[in-house]
Design a protein that fits this description.
The protein has 66 residues and is mostly helical. It has one domain.
């Protein structure tokens, strides 16, 4: 397994529809959109899992549009 590889080695394809300007600006800034989304999704899942455990299943997702 390569250095820095996560425990989850099997990956699948996902289609996301993002605004063209957001994608262009992200590329200009050098973001790897796949890795960025994966990291943020992992963080969100971890936070919600902890919240669900702490609140006995009453976790709430708040989506903020920027």
């Amino acid at each position: 397994m390569p250095s820095g590889a996560s425990a989850m080695t099997t990956k699948g394809n996902v289609v996301l529809y993002l605004g063209r300007e957001l994608v262009e600006k992200s590329k200009e800034l050098g973001f790897n959109l796949s890795k960025t989304f994966e990291n943020h999704l992992k963080q969100l899942v971890m936070q919600l899992s902890q919240s669900k455990t702490e609140n006995k299943g009453n976790a709430q997702i708040n989506i903020v549009e920027r």
